Amino acid sequence: MTLPLAEAEKILADNFAPWVLDLGLSVVEAGELHAVLRLPWSDRLAREGGGISGQALMAAADTATVIAVSSARGAFIPMTTVQQSSTFQRAVMGSDVLVDARITKLGKRMAFADITMTAEGSEDVAARASTVYALLG
User: Fold this and answer.
1) Residue 108 in this model has a pLDDT that exceeds 80
2) What is the phi/psi pair of residue 34, to 5°?
3) CB neighbourhood size of 10 (10 A)
């Protein structure tokens, strides 16, 4: 199953806290077992030194996982983060970030995903995350 982009954007708009929406995330792609979101560059998200903050990247990875699971299931269902582990490999400065969430296992009650974050236009990985979700619906 996959979600049309308009439906994925509606899930994003209807199911996340206002501060997450303030990140300005948009859905670039929603596929059978993945989703790609864009985290737009903002000086408000930069930390000292000018790189985008790890907190913003972690929130984007978490959000991308929800969209990927929803796309794989064909619709949004209630779910919650059980675990997230992140590694930061290089700073992203002055560029949007593409957040690519790939479902590695989707069960009836649990979902697992690997997320890769790259600066737009670069193939070099800026950050990686792995997530585990409990599916509640």
Assistant:
1) yes
2) -160, 165
3) 14
CB 104 within 8 A of CB 31: no
Q: Distance from CA of residue 110 to its chain's centroid?
A: 17
Beta strands (DSSP E) in the chain are: 26-30, 34-39, 79-88, 97-106, 110-119, 125-135
**SS3 of the chain: helix, strand, coil, percent, to 5:** 30, 40, 35
pTM as predicted: 0.95
pLDDT score at 87: 98
Residues present in the chain in total: 137
3-state SS class at 22: coil
38-81, pLDDT tens digit by residue?
Answer: 999 999 999 888 899 999 999 999 999 999 999 999 999 999 99
The dihedral built from the CA positions of residue 32, 34, 36 and 37, taken in this order, carries a sign that is positive
